Amino acid sequence: MKLQQLEAFVWITRLGSFAAAAERLNITQPTVSQRISELEGQLGVAVFKRVGRRAHLTEQGRGLMPLAEEMMSLRQNILHKVANPTHISGTVRLGVAELVSLTWLPQLIDRVSRLYPGVTLELDIDLTENLWDKLHQGVLDTALLPKIIERPSFETIFLGDTHFAWMGSPSLNVPDRQLEPAEVAQWPVLLLSQHSNLYSIIENWFQDGGARMQRRALCNNLYSIANLTICGLGVSTLPTDLYQGEIERNELTVLQTDPPLPAVGYWAAYRPAESTNLAAIVARLAAECTTFSMADPTQ
């Protein structure tokens, strides 16, 4: 029995099909099928039954899964504790929230490439809910994103808080005083789409203040929202550290609001079963590279 066979078995189980496992392992589907045939031949039992394009575990397959995952974890543990990092190779599919990509992601990529030159990062920059979905589906190995709610099926490492504020163009003639949610709602609101963590935060901010957004424009790109805000098309919530230059050049004005916006915590997430593999290594390196505020996440 070869580890490659168990690896194919694990990824078919996680992703639900031979085709998805082949793509994940960067091999052909016939190669995946051959590995499973060899595995079933050695075991003398079928581990999958196919229904259409989906692969479902047999009773014997369900019994094999935790053992196969344990074998994969043991292999990764050996590599992690014994192998020279420069000899470790593999691919990590890394999901990244946009704010991370706009700030300290280059430092992380540089650190991974220097410490683990044989490791390839495949980046997927997306909105929060989409990244969590991809983690659950097994499409991603690690993700750097807002936690939003407890996810007991994942290990998480705190990456720090970032602070957002309401901003607008000076051309809007925003009053120089504290504004309540109902007053902010008088302007068009430029906001990330409903699949983002920030959308829920802003919606709750208005609701808690007894107000609601009257006019809004949704976009899936923070950079575009900032540009639209600078052009005076509405107000938006932007990270203060990232847009400090625009504030100093008087391209953006920070709105003083009561209450202020809450800080947003970011986390690295990966499956507990992969705590010793490359997914966890990248998560730990992300915690070393983050530039977000490292306040106590329990406070």
Map the helices and strands.
Layout: H1 3-15, H2 18-25, H3 29-43, E1 48-51, E2 54-57, H4 59-82, E3 89-96, H5 98-102, H6 105-115, E4 118-125, H7 128-137, E5 142-146, E6 155-162, E7 164-168, H8 181-184, E8 189-192, H9 197-208, E9 216-219, H10 222-230, E10 235-239, H11 244-248, E11 253-254, E12 264-270, H12 278-289
Parallel strand pairs: 3-4, 3-5, 8-9, 8-10
Antiparallel strand pairs: 1-2, 5-12, 6-12, 7-10, 7-11
Helix pairs in contact: 1-2, 1-3, 1-4, 2-3, 6-12
CATH architecture of the largest domain: 3-Layer(aba) Sandwich
User: For this structure, what is the CATH class of the largest domain?
Assistant: Alpha Beta
Task: Please count the beta strands (DSSP E, at least 2 residues each).
Answer: 12
Helix content range of the residues, please? 40-55%
Helix-strand topology string: HHHEEHEHHEHEEEHEHEHEHEEH
What is the total domain count? 3
Summed over residues and divided by their number, the pLDDT gives a mean of 89
The CATH superfamily of the largest domain is identified as Periplasmic binding protein-like II
Strand content: 15-25%
The low-confidence runs, each spanning 5 or more residues with pLDDT under 50, are none
